[in-house]
Specification:
disordered N terminus; 12 helices; disordered C terminus; Serine Threonine Protein Phosphatase 5, Tetratricopeptide repeat; 0% strand; mainly alpha
Length: 281
């Protein structure tokens, strides 16, 4: 999926989170998490912003230490605690701009930015308005697909995932060969309850026919084969994933490879008890 900045809907491999259901292996949770970090699944932005009051991880360089109980003080370089005032201000400005300016560009810009910031409900309103104003524009359709995918994944809601599928299908009517949307549509099918892995593989294979080294597609194709217990195909696809990512020095990709390999070995019954530690940020 495209790296998911929602204002850019072309190839996120979304800098792309994932529901489980009764048909999904419990073990898959770990490497799905890695996939999120990698941008290998669609929910990256929503998941990383879902807690809107989470402490900021920005450095508080030059900040004064704050008082703690018993007279203790925070280190001067400790990250600030609480919502980032600058981000909150930008969010409010985006909302005001979207409410004041009812043209397509303003609605799309406000909706895309607010989605990036995890303000899903209000983002959805603006994106729906942008789609209403220009039903045949690609960007709102993809963003609405991504938004519903994230909500479906976050809440383990198959009906919401079905809505994501419908938005992606509308987007593909405009750009039928879009690599990221085809892959995201395939992933969404694999997260239905029960999953439709045949359709998932059809869409993922369509992406791979355009780009045989598309990491997101190879990652999820391997995952689906593991869940289908087709370990020969999983092995073959994982080998392609490792080859395609071999020259990439990104640490998260390395961890995704290790986690996927661990799940494949578990499925074969050859894994050790050692687990791969997955970073959360």
């Amino acid at each position: 999926m495209a790296e998911r900045k929602q204002s850019k809907t072309t190839s996120k491999t979304t800098d792309a989170e994932t529901p489980s259901n009764n048909s999904t292996s419990t073990n898959s949770v770990m490497f799905l998490t890695v996939g999120l970090l990698l941008g290998l699944v669609v929910g990256y932005v929503f998941t990383n912003n879902v807690n809107k009051t989470a402490p900021s991880t920005k450095s508080a360089k030059g900040a004064k230490a704050g008082p703690l109980k018993d007279g203790q003080e925070m280190p001067a370089n400790h990250p600030s605690v609480g919502p980032d005032p600058e981000v909150e201000k930008e969010i409010q400005l985006a909302i005001e701009s979207g409410e004041k300016n009812q043209d397509y560009d303003s609605q799309l810009k406000a909706g895309s930015y607010l989605y990036q910031q995890g303000q899903v409900d209000i983002a959805k309103k603006f994106l729906l308005k942008a789609n209403e104003l220009k039903p045949n524009e690609f960007a709102p359709l993809v963003n609405l697909g991504n938004l519903h995918f994230d909500l479906g994944q976050q809440n383990k809601d198959s009906k919401m995932m079905q809505q994501a599928i419908e938005w992606y299908e509308k987007a593909l009517k405009i750009k039928p060969d879009d690599l990221s949307v085809n892959t995201d549509l395939g992933i969404a099918h694999s997260f239905l309850s029960p999953p439709d892995n045949k359709k998932a593989l059809d869409y993922i294979n369509k992406s791979l026919s355009k780009d045989p080294k598309h990491l997101q597609s190879l990652f999820h194709k391997t995952r689906i084969y593991i869940e289908l217990k087709d370990l020969k195909s999983a092995d073959e696809t994982f080998a392609l994933f490792k080859e395609a990512s071999s020259s990439n020095e990104n640490e998260t990709i390395k961890q995704a490879t290790a986690a996927l390999e661990q799940e494949l070995n578990k499925a074969k019954g050859t894994t050790s008890n050692k687990t791969v530690e997955i970073p959360t940020h």
